[in-house]
């Protein structure tokens, strides 16, 4: 008997998958039946990954499954949302049972970790493309947005920056790093960790937030545009891993931290009046966010400083952008 679309769904995306009580009907009908939490607003995010654009042939299928969910969960985290449901649209050139086994494993693992249920989607034949839509909840009126930053707010980032970019550069032979450093940054590129808990804890503290997917400079620029403010960044304060600082010159490392995509950390602003509450809150987090600068009243202007002087990036890139 031929192995068809519905066999694929049943075999790889139905059996042994995590379920939630608020999904009355998930996979198996024409649509999902869901019950949003009372007093909550629904946050929805969609991302697509295309073979040859977002990943190449050497990217493990398990990493693709993990990452396509992680990038959406990172968007939810940036808005302070609690993840709930995912839907998947998967386009495959042909049936590859080994690839599907590892892809579904990566997707299932991250869904279970963040208490998400796969509720449906679509499978088609064509060039390898993976699209996930994630949905989550945030208490009414508490969603974090990009348009709330005010002059005087402090600018923070979570984690370290530039590691995924360094891994990609090493893969493409544009950077030379030790094996130990390479394995660490490759993990950051393949298996990013969305800052879901941090995002939820910032709901009533941060004045704006965004996740760093296209590079700090580019994504912070979205906050500046939406909020009609500027920013001053001390590049010496950018959080960087030993892999980055030991593999590149100081200026190159700063450039990667500012411009490399795929970090999936959070960048957010905190008003002076809430900074004490914020410091108390983040003391519980294993990786305390780093303050890198301050919001200014110079709308749209991102000023980079080092030792009190204007700093110029070695390259002119400001981050990744499709169709640029």
Automatic annotation (TrEMBL):
Entry keyword set: ATP-binding, Kinase, Magnesium, Metal-binding, Nucleotide-binding, Thiamine biosynthesis, Transferase
CDD domains for the chain: ThiL
Positions annotated to bind ATP: 121-122, 146, 213
Catalytic activity, reaction form: thiamine phosphate + ATP = thiamine diphosphate + ADP
Binding sites annotated in the UniProt record for Mg(2+) 4: 30, 75
Enzyme Commission no: 2.7.4.16
GO terms for biological process, alphabetical: thiamine biosynthetic process; thiamine diphosphate biosynthetic process
Keyword NAD among UniProt keywords: no
Binding site for substrate: 54, 262, 320
Pathway: Cofactor biosynthesis; thiamine diphosphate biosynthesis; thiamine diphosphate from thiamine phosphate: step 1/1
Keyword Lipid metabolism: no
Binding-site list for Mg(2+) 2: 47, 75
Binding annotation for Mg(2+) 3: 30, 75, 211
InterPro entries membership: PurM-like_C_dom (IPR010918), PurM-like_C_sf (IPR036676), PurM-like_N (IPR016188), PurM-like_N_sf (IPR036921), ThiL-like (IPR006283)
Domain PurM-like N-terminal: 28-138
Domain PurM-like C-terminal: 150-299
Binding annotation for Mg(2+) 1: 46-47, 122
Gene3D superfamilies linked: PurM-like C-terminal domain (3.90.650.10), PurM-like, N-terminal domain (3.30.1330.10)
A GO term, aspect molecular function: ATP binding
Residue numbers binding Mg(2+) 5: 214
Other observations noted: Reaction mechanism of ThiL seems to utilize a direct, inline transfer of the gamma-phosphate of ATP to TMP rather than a phosphorylated enzyme intermediate.
Family designation: Belongs to the thiamine-monophosphate kinase family.
Stated role: Catalyzes the ATP-dependent phosphorylation of thiamine-monophosphate (TMP) to form thiamine-pyrophosphate (TPP), the active form of vitamin B1.
Name of this chain's protein: Thiamine-monophosphate kinase
Organism: Pseudidiomarina sediminum
GN (gene name): thiL
């Amino acid at each position: 008997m031929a192995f068809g679309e519905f066999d694929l769904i049943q075999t790889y995306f139905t059996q042994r998958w995590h379920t939630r009580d608020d999904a009355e009907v998930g996979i198996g009908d024409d649509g999902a039946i869901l019950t949003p939490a009372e007093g909550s607003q629904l946050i929805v995010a969609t991302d697509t990954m295309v073979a040859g654009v977002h990943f190449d042939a050497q990217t493990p299928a398990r990493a693709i499954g993990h990452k396509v969910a992680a990038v959406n969960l990172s968007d939810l985290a940036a808005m302070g949302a609690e993840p709930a449901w995912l839907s998947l649209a998967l386009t495959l050139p042909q049936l590859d049972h080994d690839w599907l086994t590892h892809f579904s494993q990566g997707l299932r693992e991250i869904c279970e970790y963040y208490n998400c249920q796969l509720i449906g989607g679509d499978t088609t034949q064509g060039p390898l493309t993976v699209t996930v839509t994630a949905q989550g909840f945030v208490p009414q009126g508490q969603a974090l947005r990009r348009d709330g930053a005010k002059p005087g707010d402090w600018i923070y980032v979570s984690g370290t920056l530039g590691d995924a970019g360094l891994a990609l550069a090493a893969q493409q032979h544009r950077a030379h790093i030790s094996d130990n450093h390479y394995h660490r940054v490759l993990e950051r590129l393949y298996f990013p960790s969305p800052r879901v808990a941090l995002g939820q804890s910032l709901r009533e503290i941060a004045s704006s937030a965004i996740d760093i997917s296209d590079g700090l400079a580019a994504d912070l620029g979205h906050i500046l545009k939406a909020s009609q403010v500027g920013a001053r960044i001390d590049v010496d304060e950018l959080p960087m891993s030993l892999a980055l600082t030991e593999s590149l010159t100081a200026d190159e490392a700063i450039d990667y931290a500012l411009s490399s995509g795929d970090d999936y950390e959070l960048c957010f602003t905190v008003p002076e009046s809430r900074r004490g509450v914020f410091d108390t809150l983040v003391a519980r987090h294993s990786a305390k966010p780093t303050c890198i600068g301050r919001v200014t009243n110079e709308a749209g202007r991102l000023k980079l400083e080092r030792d009190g002087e204007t700093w110029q990036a070695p390259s002119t890139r400001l981050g990744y952008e499709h169709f640029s």
